[in-house]
Design a protein that fits this description.
Elements: H1 11-28, E1 32-36, E2 39-43, H2 47-56, H3 62-71, H4 79-102, H5 106-128, H6 133-146, H7 152-155, H8 165-177, E3 183-187, H9 195-212, E4 215-219, H10 223-229, E5 232-237, E6 240-246, H11 247-252, H12 257-264, E7 313-316, E8 319-321, H13 337-350
Parallel strand pairs: 3-4
Antiparallel strand pairs: 1-2, 5-6, 6-8, 7-8
Length: about 350
């Protein structure tokens, strides 16, 4: 194969050389990937065209000939120099793609994603189930009746403002059931509802869970709801799970200071002392704090809490917590009196049932 540095090389010979080089690249490179917005773009079959396009775009000046010659010669008998030139060309291709990606307008991608939402909502029924208008109406009325909407045929033609808060919540649950899901995510489903309606909605969710064999992920700040609804509890702070376990684990054997603080601040009819408030404010997650996010509000925090984030420590096969207090070298800290008193009251009310065994 002719050398890059030859002064007598004509454009047609360079094109021939580019073709040979692209064949070498195609045979030696499996893939070429770049990333943008956490998405990977892979170029496999197009790498040959990319090499040809790259070389054809270069001006055949003597300066470029000498620049190529200074780096290495490309000869079929010299595989090491062949690889070196291939690496050089591929690096330049990658740089060209990276430069193009860096100048892309990211707003276009965001706007396209937002515009796609409405399209997907309109097409959802066609993609999931092909139903006629009559079938859809019958299914809607059936779901309304299933979630406890009385006189569903009449209610079907009414507007949302004609429904009470509890009935609107039932309609939302019916919408969630329309696609026969295996998992339902309930994000604060009882917020802004009075106590009576809350109980009705919780009973409905429990009923649907049993009848449909559903898994329910219940997101709430109400520990009373958690105690009556959940099998397992994940306590979260600053976007991360800090304690995980069964209902018994979390309510009767809490291990994380944040869980202690939550239980201490929860009112009940037998509480005689003043409720304990959690001091401080939640962290700004735009600038996440170093170490344990709860450390500035934790009166049991140690120096390591401000320096290093704690891992999950296993307390039992069903119970884990992310706190340095569980480290073997940490000092022994017992739960505060407000927590132990609450646990004693709960055990008295339940007769000691609900153990983890």
């Amino acid at each position: 194969m002719e050398r890059f540095a030859s002064d007598s090389t004509s454009p047609s010979e360079y094109r021939k050389l580019a073709k040979q080089l692209s064949q070498i690249v195609s045979g030696n490179i499996d893939r070429l990937s770049i990333s943008k917005d956490s998405l990977a773009y892979t170029f496999e079959t197009s790498i040959k065209a990319a090499v040809e396009k790259y070389l054809r775009a270069k001006k055949l000046s003597r300066k470029r000939h000498l620049s190529a010659a200074d780096r290495a010669f490309l000869e079929t008998a010299d595989l090491e120099r062949c690889r070196a030139n291939i690496v050089l060309i591929v690096k330049r291709i990658i740089e060209a793609y990276e430069a193009e990606v860096a100048t892309e307008d990211k707003c276009d991608y965001a706007e396209s994603a937002i515009a796609m939402v409405d399209h997907l909502k309109l097409q959802a029924s066609k993609r999931i189930y092909r139903v006629t208008h009559t079938m859809a109406k019958a299914r809607a009325i059936e779901l309304m009746e299933e979630v406890g909407i009385s006189d569903a045929r009449k209610r079907y033609r009414q507007y949302p403002f004609q429904f009470s808060g509890g009935m609107r919540q039932r309609i939302v649950i019916a919408i969630a059931l329309a696609a026969n899901p295996d998992i339902i995510i309930c994000d604060e489903p009882t917020t802004a509802l009075d106590v009576t309606i809350q109980a009705q909605i919780l009973d409905l969710i429990n009923k649907l869970k049993r009848e449909r064999n559903l898994t329910v992920i219940f997101i709430t700040h109400d520990l009373g709801v958690v105690a009556n609804m959940a099998d397992n509890i994940a306590v979260m702070y600053a976007g991360k799970i800090v304690e995980y376990g069964t209902v018994y684990d979390v309510f009767y054997e809490p291990a994380h200071p944040y869980t202690w603080a939550l239980l201490s601040s929860m009112p009940d009819l037998d509480t005689k002392d003043k409720l304990e408030a959690i001091p401080g404010t939640p962290p700004n997650m735009i600038y996440p704090p170093k170490g344990d996010a709860f450390a500035p509000r934790n009166k049991y925090a140690m120096q390591i809490d401000f320096e290093e984030e704690p891992p999950m420590f296993e307390i039992s096969p069903t119970h884990r917590a992310a706190t340095w207090l569980l480290h073997p070298d940490a000092p022994k800290i017992d739960p505060p009196k407000a927590v132990t008193d609450r646990i004693a009251r709960m055990k008295k009310l339940t007769g000691g049932i609900g153990s983890n065994e």
